[in-house]
Amino acid sequence: MKILFATTNEGKMREIRQIMEDLPVEIHSLKEEGIHIDIDENGTTFEENAIIKAKALRPYTDAIVLADDSGLVVDYIGGEPGIYSARYMGEHTSYDIKNANIIERLKDARGEERSARFVCSIAACFPDGNVVTTEGRMEGRIAYVPAGENGFGFDPIMYLPEYGMTSAQLTPEEKNEISHRGKALRAMCALLRTMI
Q1: 3-class secondary structure for the chain?
Q2: Which residue among the candidates 22, 38, 40, 69 is catalytic per the annotation?
Q3: Are strands 2-5 and 26-29 parallel, antiparallel or unpaired?
């Protein structure tokens, strides 16, 4: 059994393989399959965008297609960057700059006002066109300063009060246990086990 995961992000593929290692499937990335496709993610929710990506790749493979859409939702700034997380401040802007911008925009926010969450929706599109979705969330607050070398993207500014550290300070194993992607992937694994 083969799964095509709609990403070229190697950090994300590492997480995915660790979390899904118990599932008896081969997991391939777009890069590994040599698939280059520009998908217009024009949905209004994480779930809609995940479905759009999964369906767009259906003609390119006989495998089950998994696609995720995830991002950071910051309450103080009206839910930004939300579904635009990857394209926030421009697709090629470094996350050091993106993270500094968010911290600056929250300079007057204190305590609970800094509430934020990572959200991940995953869609699975089967060869027959059937689609199922799962979602995971990781709640926290925006840190006052970035911290940590693990993870990627917004991880250094997602402070987790119950751990006393940011998502980027967790070990990969700890992060996978509690992350939005970990929760959504484990839910998807449970669904796939009933279907394959």
Answers
A1: CEEEECCCCHHHHHHHHHHCCCCCCEEEEHHHHCCCCCCCCCCCCHHHHHHHHHHHHHHHCCCEEEEEEEEEEEHHHCCEEHHHHHHCCCCCCCHHHHHHHHHHHCCCCCHHHHEEEEEEEEEEECCCCCEEEEEEEEEEEECCCCCCCCCCCCHHHEEECCCCEEHHHCCHHHHHHHCHHHHHHHHHHHHHHHHC
A2: 69
A3: parallel
d(CA 124, CA 19): 16
CATH class label, 2-195: alpha beta
How confident is the prediction along the chain (196 residues), in pLDDT tens digits per residue?
899 999 988 878 988 898 888 888 999 999 999 999 999 999 999 999 999 999 999 999 999 999 999 999 999 999 999 999 989 999 899 999 999 999 999 999 999 999 999 999 999 999 999 999 999 999 999 999 999 998 789 999 999 999 999 999 999 889 888 999 999 999 999 999 888 6
- Residue 69 annotated in active site: yes
Non-local (6+) Cβ contacts of 31 within 8 A are 8
Task: For the beta carbon of residue 179, count every other beta carbon within 10 angstroms.
Answer: 25
Q: Are 165 and 148 within 8 A, CB to CB? A: yes
